[in-house]
Specification:
Distance between the termini: 33 Å
Largest sheet: 6 strands, mixed
Number of helices: 11
Radius of gyration: 23 Å
Order of helices and strands: EEHEHEHEEHEEEEHHEEHHHHH
Length: 341
């Protein structure tokens, strides 16, 4: 329970606005500080500026977490000082959002109506800045919430470790596919959607909205972004879980994964082997009167078994819940029971 924990209060400035945040002292000592020490060792071994991605859905508190880790890094001489940066500075400016649109479900939607969605960011600009930041001190844009627009080249990137926070840094879609390769290490903070719903509605009310307006905004915007981030993000090197009281705990740690075709992975195997080595074996065996389906069946069965192993690991490691797997992958409830038994 929250009352059983010792909470430390901190005031931070984020995008031009003041925030008061609380973190569990035990979590600071057993999760945050060890993480910073490990990152420091990695950076020293790397020998250049290290870029860490902190990805999470809306409502998790990633901006305040990144800034708190920056402040925490200044308290221990053994820790390499960290600089927190945000993805929001790469929003397209309001003038661009107002004059451009996308087509979704047969409807033309202005980008200004979905501000904050992946389509409203200048991804190529982000990748160019990350390329320069690895070797040089560059100027970084910020998003100012007092004017609700981007301010260019406001912050100098100068520390040896950068923590870049944002919703879409690990997104496995379209223009975002290549962004992940710019991270030397990635951290994802997951959360239960119902916890995020409450936090996001409260945040909107705190900003001046009525309860009714806050709930409508959540259904129209925040809910879609939460679901998209949780379901469509690539696995990170390390995952933390946000608890219902706003505390964090280590969820799982996995080895970095090689980029693959995520959409193909989600689908059941649909193997065409005519032009493969097995296809050649089948053709020759057919000419000799042998039965080729043995090779077909073996190859397809192997693909199916590999897929089951991947889904089982996603579930057992805590990377995805059973509901998330059922909703995301083409798996029935009966198949899922068979996979995890």
């Amino acid at each position: 329970m929250m009352n059983d924990k010792v909470w430390r209060t901190c005031r931070l400035m984020i995008n031009g606005l003041a925030h008061k945040v609380q973190y569990n002292q035990a979590t600071i000592d057993t999760l945050f500080l060890p993480f910073l020490r490990r990152m420091s060792k990695m950076q020293k071994k790397l020998g250049r500026r290290m870029i860490i991605f902190l990805a999470a859905p809306p409502g998790v508190g990633k901006s305040t977490l990144a800034l708190f880790l920056e402040r925490l890094s200044n308290t221990d001489e053994e820790i390499v000082p960290v600089q927190a940066l945000g993805l929001d500075g790469f929003h397209y400016p309001n003038s661009y959002l107002a004059s451009h649109s996308i087509e979704r479900d047969g409807k033309v939607i202005p980008l200004s109506a979905i501000k904050g969605a992946p389509e409203t960011f200048a991804v190529e600009k982000l990748m160019g800045k990350l390329t320069d930041a690895r070797k040089n001190n560059v100027r970084w844009p910020i998003y100012d919430r007092t004017i609700h627009d981007v301010l260019e080249e406001m912050v100098t990137v100068k520390r040896s470790i950068v923590i870049l926070e944002g919703n879409w840094l690990l997104l496995g879609e379209d223009r975002w596919q290549n962004v992940r390769s710019f991270a030397d290490y990635s951290l994802f903070v997951s959360a239960e959607p119902h916890d995020l719903k409450e936090r996001l509605i409260r945040r909107k009310i705190a900003g001046g909205s009525t309860m009714e307006a806050a709930k409508k905004f959540y259904q129209k915007s925040d809910r879609l972004n939460v679901e998209r981030c949780l379901k469509k993000s690539w696995p990170a090197d390390e995952t933390w879980q946000m608890l219902s009281d706003g505390d964090y705990q280590l969820k799982n740690k996995i080895m970095p994964t090689r980029m693959v075709d995520r959409e193909a992975l989600w689908k059941k195997p649909d193997v065409q082997i005519r032009n493969t080595l097995l296809g050649g074996l089948n053709t020759r065996n057919a000419e000799q009167g042998l039965q080729p389906p043995l090779y077909d069946e073996g190859y397809i069965k192997g693909m199916e078994e590999a897929r089951k192993v991947i889904l089982k690991k996603l579930y057992e490691s805590g990377t995805m819940s059973s509901k998330a797997i059922l909703d995301t992958f083409q798996v029935s409830a009966e198949e899922f029971k068979d996979i995890i038994k």
